[in-house]
Amino acid sequence: MWGAQLHLEDHALAHDFTARRGDLFKRHVRRTVGAVEIQTGNWISAKEEQTPATRIGRMLSRRWVRVLLAAVWWTVVGWIFSLPSLTSPNYNQSLRMYLTEFWAWGLITPLVIWLDRRLPFSGKELGKRVGAHLAASAALTVVYFYIFTTMRAIVGVVPWSSIRPAQIFGFSNLGWYLWSWLIYGLIAGALQAYRYYERYMNSELQLERLEHSISEARLNALRMQLDPHFLFNALNTISSHVERDPKLTRRMIEHLGDLLRMSLDSKDRQEVPLTEELALLGHYLEIQKIRFGNQLKVVTDVSPEVKYAAVPSMFIQPLVENAIRHGISRRAAGGTVTVRAVARDGKLEVCVLDDGVGLPRGWTLEASEGLGLSITRQRIEGLHPNGASRFVVRNREEGGAVVEVVLPLRLVGEEVNERAYA
Fold it and tell me: What's the rounded Cα separation, in Å, for the pair 367 and 359?
């Protein structure tokens, strides 16, 4: 009778586990599709597709603002070129000539940009792009000179007869054509430099995204190694009590079910609030307390100001499991495991202490074959690289061992909301 009931409960637990996993997968897919899309082989964040969020970005996105800035730019350039003749009695005429010269370039530059964008050559084909600009420069230079001469005639620098073809293509304007061709080359060169800068920045962004994706994949792989490691150990504990004490086994299975649910809830999150991590740890410790009875004592000392600190998901449980398995279980009288978390100097310090047998002589973390400690250390280093975290395992002077973890203190969850509305 008991076996059939246990079988039905296990079947219901497995069904609930499968349904829960399906719901979480669907939510993960919806979040992924909402946040990221694939376009031309590049990962593009949904936030990047929105309109510029800053005030300057919104202003620069308006065409009239860009036109105004371009007009101011070319006016300033013309004024700077006129400064050498500032003390000359003909400065007024010189100023008008230089202003019209660069205002004309302000009108021609959009054509150069339009041409550059429509060249059928990629940024890697620099030679072909330069050749295309050299071919176009002859025609655009003539157009520019027509506009420049017309504007000089409007402001009274030259007579209107100067716009006649005989005057425009006269040998006397050869110097102007060479000067204009040089400026065209400077504009085209600046466009190529900007294109290469854009390519460089895009490459840097793609490299950063790739590194982030690799880091995420590595952290997920480490987490996937940790989950079965924890699950198998819990199942071994339960299996050792199935025949000896069925009621005790039932309680263990209930706590294991809660553990699996909470583990699935945090499956797609690398970090969770400390209070959530401690709740998961509580279910694991209930299983261990059932197994060891009065031989295992657990003390939790967590400061109130760090209960919503961000910590790696499922990082305390392997540390406590290691303390129980290698420290407490090897003592006939059992022992005490203490979990302590405090804030110190803007950092979160988490310690897992035990009064067990301690570390063997010559033990090092690098040479340790245990998965729990090594994977937990790698996950912490992956989440907080460049010395932002610390992971130390050592013997205690009072006996036993201690694992010290130092992380950046960052509050998440309800604590952030409480401070926001305070």
Answer: 13
